[in-house]
Amino acid sequence: SETAHIRNFCIIAHIDHGKSTLADRLIQKAKLVDDRNFQNQILDNMDIERERGITIKSQAVTIPYTSKNGQNYELNFVDTPGHVDFTYEVSRAISSCEGALLLVDATQGVQAQTLSNMYLALEHNLEIIPVINKIDMAAADVESTKHQIEHDLGLDAEHALLVSAKQGIGIDELFEAIVERIPAPKGSSDKPLQALIFDCHYDPYRGVIVHLRVFEGRIKPGMKIRFMNNNAEYEVETVGVFKLALVEQPELRAGSVGYMIAGIKTVSDVRVGDTVTDAEHPCEKPLPGFKEVKPVVFSSIYPVDSNDYEELKDSLEKLKLNDASLVYEKDSSAALGFGFRCGFLGLLHLEVVQERLEREFDQSIIFTAPSVKYKIHLRNGEEIYVDNPTEYPDEGKIESAEEPYIRASIITPTTYLGAIMSLCTEKRGVQTNMTYLDEKRVELVYEMPLAEVLFDFYDKLKSISRGYASFDYDITGYKPTELVKLDILLNGKVVDALSQLVYKGNAYERARTICERLRDEIPRQQFKIPIQGAIGSQIIARETVNALRKDVLAKCYGGDITRKRKLLEKQKEGKKRMKMVGDVELPQNAFLAVLKSK
Ligand code: GDP
Ligand code: MG
């Protein structure tokens, strides 16, 4: 059939098992870039990805491949992120593929996200090829990794491929396995167009760029297309494929992956998960699309300069194109003015959104303390959900409260078992299961409040297990809790944007930590600034930022003028990242700093 020589697959694995490095080898083999211009983890092209060494966005690429028997293929593959916050990126990639390379690091074995990503691939009936990576390393244990693939994953390890993505070992065999074992896509280019929008991005020069997997039919310039979700119609300007750069093509046909530009002015017309069809000959029904993702962490963002509100709104809209999991609505605060209440998939997601708004859209913003969504039972019988401390009802109206819980699954070498169990207990966790996967590895299952995981759980887990424990979670539901609203006062006044809902048992410690961190973050000013933590009218913690002793410039007395100017400029730079709250300057990251473990 016409799609016989197309293969669509994704690369999935636990974080750091080598997905992006393997993608590099595939791209290099296909000579999409010459060796001189090659940089490692070439698909991780966002600044944040390169700095943090992690993949945040799924990236699609099309490469040619000529098999041993001389047949030419078109391979479309997607490199995916491994972090638990970005599972949504993985599930969307999976929906546009027929197969998956499931990488397992031979020095680490099967980890928490190896399992969860495999289940995602199985749910979508993908052909899974197990790939054992990092076989070049001295610590590689291929036999035990094979055992884990059979035992923990229930996959046949006999035909697992042995690879070193870094050194390029086993890549030829891998290519052959891809074309032999992954099924060709179904579909016919004579049927009416049916294409899935699996991603999108905004280009300042070319506008909205829609990423498509064509399931049926064909799409080409001049054609009138319709988005099935809202019936918006546009004329296609160009289509093409991802070869690192966008490469124009005469058309995209059934089975293929590529992009479309259609002069889309209304950014909100485009929805990831929507089906694109031919406006003149529409298909009967839309493709299944994606499960709605529910945000679990909420925080408000405000422009540092209140005049930038409209610009921030515009930026959020454009960012949402490329990050369909971001949700937001209007919000306002007495202290910070107009802004947006946003929902995120986790704390890392929140940080990524903050950085992308700053770097890609040049926005100067301030985030409020993240919160989960609480369920509150009122005395009058009503039941409400609250994720914003400013909407927390009066104590007197509240009957009881519940907070979201997760089922946390932790895989660890037995050596760290004791320390991890104490950490989970400290975080109000209750153990529900413990399974020895083999002599050296245990899987622990805990019920834990999501709010505890948001703080420093992940960092602590990594540090007490020297990076060896892996962690995954699902939200399970609500359980009773005791909540208080913790207010923070600066200069004697409550700053609404700094209030937090906290578990009663943690309130004193939290108040103390917040006050200490704020003391360290708020720059000294001409006057003394008291910082207080309070529940209602009761002050439970206090710190002070002392007044500036001298003008900073005084230090430069007699010094040269350029140095003085530099200092002034630096201060101005700093100012941009400060928000005036009453007469106190609050640094942009004061809120996030509160959350980070020391
Ligand atoms: P990802 O998170 O799955 O995308 O993993 P990366 O591709 O970013 O790789 C994580 C780290 O493992 C990087 O430092 C890579 O250089 C290293 N790495 C990946 N594959 C191999 C391999 O085959 N051998 C060795 N020795 N290191 C590898
Ligand atoms: Mg990666």
From TrEMBL:
<keyword id="KW-0997">Cell inner membrane</keyword>
<dbReference type="GO" id="GO:0005525">
    <property type="term" value="F:GTP binding"/>
</dbReference>
<keyword id="KW-0472">Membrane</keyword>
<dbReference type="Pfam" id="PF14492">
    <property type="entry name" value="EFG_III"/>
</dbReference>
<feature type="binding site">
    <location>
        <begin position="16"/>
        <end position="21"/>
    </location>
    <ligand>
        <name>GTP</name>
    </ligand>
</feature>
<dbReference type="InterPro" id="IPR009000">
    <property type="entry name" value="Transl_B-barrel_sf"/>
</dbReference>
<dbReference type="Pfam" id="PF00679">
    <property type="entry name" value="EFG_C"/>
</dbReference>
<dbReference type="InterPro" id="IPR035647">
    <property type="entry name" value="EFG_III/V"/>
</dbReference>
<dbReference type="GO" id="GO:0043022">
    <property type="term" value="F:ribosome binding"/>
</dbReference>
<keyword id="KW-1003">Cell membrane</keyword>
<dbReference type="InterPro" id="IPR013842">
    <property type="entry name" value="LepA_CTD"/>
</dbReference>
<dbReference type="InterPro" id="IPR000640">
    <property type="entry name" value="EFG_V-like"/>
</dbReference>
<dbReference type="InterPro" id="IPR005225">
    <property type="entry name" value="Small_GTP-bd"/>
</dbReference>
<keyword id="KW-0648">Protein biosynthesis</keyword>
<keyword id="KW-0378">Hydrolase</keyword>
<dbReference type="GO" id="GO:0045727">
    <property type="term" value="P:positive regulation of translation"/>
</dbReference>
<dbReference type="InterPro" id="IPR031157">
    <property type="entry name" value="G_TR_CS"/>
</dbReference>
<dbReference type="Pfam" id="PF03144">
    <property type="entry name" value="GTP_EFTU_D2"/>
</dbReference>
<dbReference type="GO" id="GO:0005886">
    <property type="term" value="C:plasma membrane"/>
</dbReference>
<feature type="domain" description="Tr-type G">
    <location>
        <begin position="4"/>
        <end position="186"/>
    </location>
</feature>
<comment type="function">
    <text>Required for accurate and efficient protein synthesis under certain stress conditions. May act as a fidelity factor of the translation reaction, by catalyzing a one-codon backward translocation of tRNAs on improperly translocated ribosomes. Back-translocation proceeds from a post-translocation (POST) complex to a pre-translocation (PRE) complex, thus giving elongation factor G a second chance to translocate the tRNAs correctly. Binds to ribosomes in a GTP-dependent manner.</text>
</comment>
<feature type="binding site">
    <location>
        <begin position="133"/>
        <end position="136"/>
    </location>
    <ligand>
        <name>GTP</name>
    </ligand>
</feature>
<protein>
    <recommendedName>
        <fullName>Elongation factor 4</fullName>
        <ecNumber>3.6.5.n1</ecNumber>
    </recommendedName>
</protein>
<dbReference type="InterPro" id="IPR035654">
    <property type="entry name" value="LepA_IV"/>
</dbReference>
<dbReference type="Pfam" id="PF00009">
    <property type="entry name" value="GTP_EFTU"/>
</dbReference>
<dbReference type="InterPro" id="IPR038363">
    <property type="entry name" value="LepA_C_sf"/>
</dbReference>
<keyword id="KW-0547">Nucleotide-binding</keyword>
<comment type="similarity">
    <text>Belongs to the TRAFAC class translation factor GTPase superfamily. Classic translation factor GTPase family. LepA subfamily.</text>
</comment>
<keyword id="KW-0342">GTP-binding</keyword>
<dbReference type="GO" id="GO:0003924">
    <property type="term" value="F:GTPase activity"/>
</dbReference>
<comment type="similarity">
    <text>Belongs to the GTP-binding elongation factor family. LepA subfamily.</text>
</comment>
<dbReference type="InterPro" id="IPR006297">
    <property type="entry name" value="EF-4"/>
</dbReference>
<dbReference type="InterPro" id="IPR027417">
    <property type="entry name" value="P-loop_NTPase"/>
</dbReference>
<dbReference type="InterPro" id="IPR041095">
    <property type="entry name" value="EFG_II"/>
</dbReference>
<dbReference type="InterPro" id="IPR004161">
    <property type="entry name" value="EFTu-like_2"/>
</dbReference>
<dbReference type="Pfam" id="PF06421">
    <property type="entry name" value="LepA_C"/>
</dbReference>
<dbReference type="InterPro" id="IPR000795">
    <property type="entry name" value="T_Tr_GTP-bd_dom"/>
</dbReference>
<dbReference type="GO" id="GO:0003746">
    <property type="term" value="F:translation elongation factor activity"/>
</dbReference>
